[in-house]
Design brief:
heterodimer; A: alpha/beta; B: 139 residues; Heat Shock Protein 90; 5-stranded antiparallel β-sheet; 3 helices; 5 strands
């Protein structure tokens, strides 16, 4: 799993590339914690290259949402594929997160 | 025509990677569509992670047996291990609440298994081992 960071117009865009499950959750959690440690309040998690997510991965997203919410910020998830989107839908996380179908649409949320 | 594939993994989280690789192979060998193979790999990832984390002592070295059977219109999967006996099918599960404060994380993995598989059953073998059966219909 590769975690990347782009800052665009004051919005921090975190890109996830690979599989997010129990075997990668700690590493990804640590990297996201580090990226959010400056109190960033405008976050997009770009899932264009996220190939797989399990319930362990959902916990990473939830942790990030709680961190951003604690500073009155906003977190938007973009570009889930059919497989990863299904996991959000089944668990009800689709109603917890702000999810968009493109990065441009995600950026417009701020 | 029935096809079978039998896999043994150690009770280590890193070994779950093997199952992802096997499902990729089976997708090609058995002509599974992407949705079916993705649903199966999510269910197996969740159940194996649960077993490895909760059913064994930290230094206990055990094997988990996973058998894949392709029949006419179904994929049948058997998971067998000698960890602490636990029936995951009886765990109560519910979707996430709509507000952040009310979110309960536990049980999401079992919810996924129940939603993604057509059959999710548990039994104890005569040797006192856990045995989970998963069935996915091919439509």
């Amino acid at each position: 799993m590769i975690v990347s960071e782009v800052i665009k117009g004051g919005i921090k865009i975190v890109g996830l590339n690979g599989r997010l499950d129990i075997s990668t959750q700690d590493a990804v959690q640590d990297k996201i914690n580090a990226l959010l440690s400056d109190g960033s309040a405008k976050i997009v998690i770009d899932c264009s290259d996220l190939t797989f997510i399990s319930s362990a991965g959902l916990r990473v997203f939830m942790s990030a949402l709680k961190q951003v919410s604690s500073v009155d910020g906003k977190l938007v998830i973009s570009n889930l594929n059919d497989t990863t989107r299904k996991i959000f839908d089944i668990t009800g996380y689709d109603s917890v997160f702000n999810i968009t179908t493109s990065l441009d649409e995600a950026i417009k949320q701020f | 025509m029935t096809s079978r594939k039998l896999i043994y993994i150690k009770n280590r989280i890193a070994e779950i990677n093997i199952i992802h690789d096997v499902l990729n192979q089976l997708k090609d060998e058995w002509g599974l569509d992407t949705t079916v193979s993705a649903d199966i790999v999510v269910a197996l990832d969740e159940l194996l992670a649960n077993a490895i984390y909760h059913a064994f002592k930290r230094d206990e070295h055990e094997e988990i047996k996973i058998e894949f059977i392709r029949e006419d219109n179904i994929i049948r999967i058997g998971i067998e291990h000698g960890g602490i006996l636990f029936d995951p099918t009886r765990r109560e599960v519910k979707k996430a609440a709509s507000t952040l404060d009310d979110i309960e994380i536990g049980g999401l993995g079992i919810l996924l298994v129940k939603e993604l598989m057509d059959v999710f059953e548990y039994r104890v073998t005569p040797e006192q081992k856990n045995f989970i059966t998963l069935i996915k219909h091919l439509r």
